Every structure is written in C-alpha cells, then in structure tokens.
Amino acid sequence: MANTESLKRFFSYVDQNQDHYVARLREAVAIPSVSADAAHRENVFQMGNWLIELFKQLNISYEAADVGTHELDGKTLKLPPILLGTYGNDPNKKTILVYGHYDVQPALIEDGWSSDPWKLTEDSTGRLVGRGSSDDKGPLIGWLNAVEAHQKAGIEFPVNLKMCFEGMEESGSEGLDDLILREASKYFKDVDAVCISDNYWLGITKPCLTYGLRGVSYFKVTVSGPGRDLHSGVFGGTVYEPMTDLIVLLGKLVTPDGKILIPGINDDVAELTDEEKESYKSIDFKLHELQSAIESQTNLFDNEIQTLQARWRYPSLSIHGIEGAFSASGAKTVLPCKVSGKFSIRSVPNMDPDKITVCVENFLKEEFAKLGSKNKLHVECLHGAKSWVSSPYHWNFVAAAEAVEKVFNCKPDLTREGGSIPVTLTFQDALNKNVLLLPMGRGDDGAHSTNEKLDRSNYIQGIKLLGAYLHEVAAAKST
User: So where does Mn(2+) 2 get bound (predicted)?
Assistant: First the structure.
C-alpha cells in the first residue's frame, strides 16, 4: 500500500499548479512535430530539443540516440532522436520504464478544425483542443509533470524511472525496434515493468487498464497507365483509366457492414469462448458513448457486446484515401495517370502480418487480372505489426488498479483496444517484462481526427494517476 500522506501532498501540489501544466502543454502543441511530412522534420527535432531542455530542468540524465536516416517523399532524411532518460538509480527501488512519442499526426485548419490545431485552446467545458494534446504530448508530459511535482513538493520519488520517448511513432517507429533489441541488456537491463500511456478510456466516464491491442498491416496499391495526366474531354473513353481500376479494386476489399472479402484473412482468428463472451457483460460501456465519440449514429451494431467484439477481437479493414487524385475545390477534368489507394487491416492474436500480406497481394492481383486492363498494378505493405496481449493480473496491473481507485474512487475496467502500438509487443518480447497500458484521455478525444482534445480534468487527474501508479508499484509485491 502506498504512503497515503505522500500521495495527498502530491495530489495537492498538482491541483494547485494545473494552470502551469496546461501552459506547458500549450508550448508543446505549438510545435507541429509531424513525422510523416518532410517539410515538418525540423519541427520534430525542435520538439525533441524542447523535451531535452525539460530533462535538464528536472535533472533527468539522458541520451539522444541517433537512429540513422530514412527515405520520405523522395528525400533522405535524418530520423529524430530517441530520447532515453534516467531519473534515479537506487538499487533498493523498482525500475519502471515509461514510453511515449513526441511526434503527431498532420493537421490543417481547412480539414475542419474549429480553431488553429497548433494553438491549444480551452473551451467553457475544459476541453483542451489541439493536435497532439491527447496523442501523445499530454500523457508524455504528464510523466515529467509528475517528476517535477515530487521535486517541488519535497516528496521522495518512489521508483527509478527510465524513459523512452520517440519521434516517429506516427510513421512506423522507424529505428525503435532495433534500438530496443540493442539496448535490452544495457540501458533496459534493470527494468522491472513497463508502462505506456498512449491510449484512451473505453468511454467518457470510467477509467480502464488495457491489456491487449490489435495489430496493423498498412497497404498501398498503385495503378499506373498513361505517361502523364490527360484531358478527359480528349482522351476519356479511349484509354484504360487508372482511377477506374483502382476504385473497382478498393470496392472489392470490404462490404459496407465491415465484412472483409479477402480470402484467408479470417482463417486464424480464434473462436470466441464462453468465458470470454461472459467477460464483456461487466464492462461499463454504452452505445451513446460511441455515438458521442463519432458524432453520429452510424454504428454498425445495435448492442454493446457486438460493438466491443468488433472493436477488439475481430479484424477490420479500413480504406484511408487515394493519392494522386484531384481533391481540391472546384472542377478539374483531369484523368490521372497514376493513383494509389491506401488501406489497413487491423489484426488480432494468431494472425501473422506476413500471411496477411500474401493474402492481400494474391487477392488484388487476381481481381486486377479479371479487369482485363492494360494498366499496371503494384501492391506493397508499408508496415506490418502483430497484435499484443499482456497479463492483467500481474502486479504491475494490480498496482495500476490501486492507483485508479486512489484518484478516481472506482475500480477500472480491464479492456482490450482496437488500435495498434507495436512497441508494446517489442518491449514485452525483448525485455521479457509485463507491459501495461495506462490511459490518460477519454474515448472521445478524437486522436488522429479534427478537433483532437484532452479534457483538463483528465490531464490533471492523469498526472495524479501516473504519480500514484509509481507509488503503488513501489509498494507492490513483485511476485
């Protein structure tokens, strides 16, 4: 059991300084650290340097690990550093590794944002709106705020803390797996457990602990034909059009009600057991929470259990966009010579990314051959990651559950999630340690979407939760 007096002092300090923490988040959101855009690579480095300065202020020793270069938009770019921070080295304390990422998704106000995505704004309900507020700058900075609060309140830090903060999570975490494997017996060797705060509550009212994630395989299918873009009035009806071929192919991947049409994809999905089916009944989740998050009533299923099963334990296929097509306002009668469709498959335990790729490639090639087109087809998997499942009964999870009760006065739900954080499986396999997902944000935060937000209450209570978790871990019996 954690020291109650220390936690009270910690909670009180956090409450008294919440405006300071919001101001710190505002600084971070103002840096457009978009890893997927070569034009913003300097900003990703800027964000890394911002964190390094905060490390220095908090007396956190660090290494900015150089992980090389990669190709993006036809350019060779330097990868942003992976920041390895260390706070404390007491052999009598547990060592906890925390992970986060300082890069974010792209954002343009013309996408439908109600305010500048790079200026954190707070509305009358306490919603802190800005790109990266919830994914993942708020949670990442939450760990550092917790360190600072202990320092300023004169409270002994309960554990040794290792930090692994990367700048390429939104672009496949290039260089991260190699670094983890390389440092498993070095920097990470004394780690007792891992905690990641890069996910969300299931709904909007109750905290949860997450012990499973779906994997992801992201594909790009390209159809090319004419040597240049053509005028549809001159050439329409005389050539095989790449866009037409692509639309037909994309339309054969999945039905409107979510059924994946690619043969073999569902072959390895585990059967639903009676025990697993029963576990869904106790989870606090209502359809109106989903409808609030999606701002519509376009849910596929009319009951909570089917919705959760579709979100967690079955694969799904989503079509994300078309590259090379005309998308600006107005009318342009162009016939694009080359177009690429992008889609992903979220996978579940027992599914193998390599097998998924084979199934996708074979299916698209067979369907393209049926078209009789003279265009050319190219299919590639841009990245593939396996699903992840941890033990929710490990002392790491038990400590986190105790922390939730201390902060929120309720027991957390134990959940899986539909999203993917590939590093969870890498940490689990490379370090042979339990990995916990401890979310700060709510299910309606809108990560990757317009008007991404983090509620002030979740941010402040989340800082308390991260600190309380470390106290509970320190007191936990590691057996």
Answer: 101, 135, 198
